[in-house]
Amino acid sequence: MHVYGQLFATLTPDHVISGELARGHTITGSLTIPTVVGVESYDGPYEVIPRVYAQSLDTDRKLMSDDVTVHEIPVTRTSNPEGGLTVLIG
Description:
mainly beta; three-stranded antiparallel β-sheet; 7 strands; elongated
């Protein structure tokens, strides 16, 4: 990592940053700024157990504090009299 000194930059309303570093080096790029002011927090479940019907978590445009965990669907395999496998899902 190189340290060049202070950054003098401009940040536009659409999150584009551009400016100069010490010693004539320039920098450009974009910046992601999380916005939490006025955003509703998600207070629903963070764990999902698969079902045979569609499910939805009401997370659209909400601030979440953790990852959502989707549990695996249980699968059992047993041999059958024909020499194959019988698979039980769920």
